[in-house]
Amino acid sequence: MSALIKARKAVGLAVGCGARSLTQLAELPELHQMMRQTCRDYADRELAPIAAQLDKSHTFPAKQVCELGAMGVMAVEVPESLGGAGMDYLAYSLAIEELSRGCASTGVIASVNNSLYLGPVLKFGSEEQKQQWIPPFTTGEKVGCFALSEPGNGSDAGAASTVARQDGGEWVLNGTKAWITNCWDASASVVFATTDKSLKHKGISAFLVPMPHPGLSLGKKEDKLGIRASSTANIILEDCRVPLGNLLGERGMGFKIAMQTLDSGRIGIASQALGIAQAALDCAADYAHKRTAFGAPIAKMQAIQFKLADMAVALESARLLTWKASMLRDAKKPFSKEAAMAKLAASEAATFCSHQAIQVLGGMGYVTDMPAERHYRDARITEIYEGTSEIQRLVIANQVLKEYQQ
Amino acid sequence: MAARVLVGVKRVIDYAVKIRVKPDNTGVVTDGVKHSMNPFCEIAVEEAVRLKEKKLVKEVVAVSCGPQQVQETIRTALAMGADRGIHVEVSGKDYDTLGPLQVSKILAALAKKEEASLVILGKQGTFASEVTIDGDKIKVIREIDGGLETIKINMPAVVTADLRLNTPRYATLPNIMKAKKKKIASVKPGELGVDLTSRLEVLRVEEPAQRQAGVKVETVEDLVGKLKEAGRI
């Protein structure tokens, strides 16, 4: 009896500390609801109507990015003193999901700026670096990018072959970075280069490089399957010189900075995937009501209903994982496992939902008249960038096994 | 400088939603249906906030009449830049029968109580396509059938907002956070000395007739013939 009471008290204490979190899983606080509605209105009115055109013409949505900057969405977590919105990661996740529901490219542009560029500068930058490298990137007028991957290594981030050597009062960077989102539209990059190859991943350091800059050139824009309004290309560094003060964090800290940044970035991409999945579900459910076959709307057919149910479950489960990861991060608790689970679940939900949406739409799902085909193309990358699904599984397994350490 | 602007904001069914009539024909379905601020009220709020940003007015007060849910609409006005809100509590049967007569009495009573120099509302009425404050007068340009008319009016005044007055802003995230701290006062219509009894009774609500397909004709004679057939001329 007393054991039960003790247990109940223990749970009560745990619930008490996390009560805010648990209720938030059931219903978002008013502030977050208002914020979500504002982003949704913006996405419905300003992004969704142009998304197909942006995709077709591979155009960077500069005007919309500035408008989002004015709203504070390009720097959600950055404190107001530095020009940001000063909100939490749950708010950020909601914002990215709503934007991506309108236009997945705009979602990733905002996500990369928030998580992969502003994130590390905010966390690891000196006061001076924060003052210099953050405020101009909160307004939407400038966006940043994150240069980790190389032609020779993506998942194998520790094997960086881009080098940085000290020469007087400068760092000199040489090498090539690959698959860099935003790079053709960016005004700065966090670049990872090795300052000591013999130390392997412990020899990698992070540098802040302005763009354009002498010694830095961009490769051709990749012709991608999806998220075509965002630019992706190589960054080529040939004796690219930056002042010593551009080292982010300490020498040799680069790998740690990259991994921690990606942990958070994962929540951003999970949110983007949720937005795509939701858009696909919206499209399919709406169509199911309207399209008639065999004398009734196809919504009456169990085959269609089962698809919609599976889509809804996949989406909602991934969303709750994403919210949980955000809330753990906001509570400054460990969140790597949950972030990896969120990204894995959300990206697989996005590809599943968009695949099924095309199936529900039939022939109409295959043509550009309906957005289903764009969601299918946009969804695919979410299982690959910011950590492939395979890497996410490794991260999760690692964490799970730690819990059972012998 | 004019002290205070009162802006009326109404919570209505979202303009993008398809309106459905209730099966018993007593009204339209509102349960579970998405509601938002009337788009014309958004324009009114935007104008009021712009006047404040130009330092032509000191305070913007957003007012809404209705049940608990209208507080969301007031909060949206606060997030756009209004300073505080007033929620006039009207619910149940009173809310169902709340009409323009009662609302205008409420707004008039509030305008007197709050000593508002200007009341801006979403249109129907005299609608403004441009509003500026010149000393203690308001200069309004309004669209009339013949073109544009510029008039100067004394304060206190009531101005209604037309589509072309401005493009409402999206609330910024920091403003949404600030809106949380702004006050919304609750007031009962009785306290304002307003009687809510309705002079109208809703007999029945029906969907508009389904639009019939049109018929194309080749010549003017055919058109006249068809119109005569249909008994129109």
UniProtKB/TrEMBL annotation, chain A:
Keywords: FAD, Flavoprotein, Oxidoreductase, Transit peptide. The lineage of its organism: Eukaryota, Metazoa, Chordata, Craniata, Vertebrata. Its EC number is 1.3.8.1. It comes from Astyanax mexicanus. Residues 30-141 form the Acyl-CoA dehydrogenase/oxidase N-terminal domain. One of its GO terms (cellular component) is mitochondrion. This is Short-chain specific acyl-CoA dehydrogenase, mitochondrial. Its cofactor is FAD. Belongs to the acyl-CoA dehydrogenase family.
TrEMBL record, chain B:
GO terms for biological process: amino acid catabolic process; fatty acid beta-oxidation using acyl-CoA dehydrogenase. Its main location: mitochondrion. One of its GO terms (cellular component) is mitochondrial matrix. Residues 25-196 form the Electron transfer flavoprotein alpha/beta-subunit N-terminal domain. InterPro entries: ET-Flavoprotein_bsu_CS, ETF_a/b_N, ETF_b, ETF_beta_N, Rossmann-like_a/b/a_fold. It is found in: Mitochondrion matrix. SUPFAM superfamilies: Adenine nucleotide alpha hydrolases-like. Keywords: Electron transport, Mitochondrion, Transport. It holds the Pfam family ETF. One of its GO terms (molecular function) is electron transfer activity. Belongs to the ETF beta-subunit/FixA family. Heterodimeric electron transfer flavoprotein that accepts electrons from several mitochondrial dehydrogenases, including acyl-CoA dehydrogenases, glutaryl-CoA and sarcosine dehydrogenase. It transfers the electrons to the main mitochondrial respiratory chain via ETF-ubiquinone oxidoreductase. Required for normal mitochondrial fatty acid oxidation and normal amino acid metabolism. ETFB binds an AMP molecule that probably has a purely structural role. The electron transfer flavoprotein serves as a specific electron acceptor for several dehydrogenases, including five acyl-CoA dehydrogenases, glutaryl-CoA and sarcosine dehydrogenase. It transfers the electrons to the main mitochondrial respiratory chain via ETF-ubiquinone oxidoreductase (ETF dehydrogenase). Heterodimer composed of ETFA and ETFB. Identified in a complex that contains ETFA, ETFB and ETFRF1. Interacts with ACADM. Heterodimer of an alpha and a beta subunit. This is Electron transfer flavoprotein subunit beta. The lineage of its organism: Eukaryota, Metazoa, Chordata, Craniata, Vertebrata.
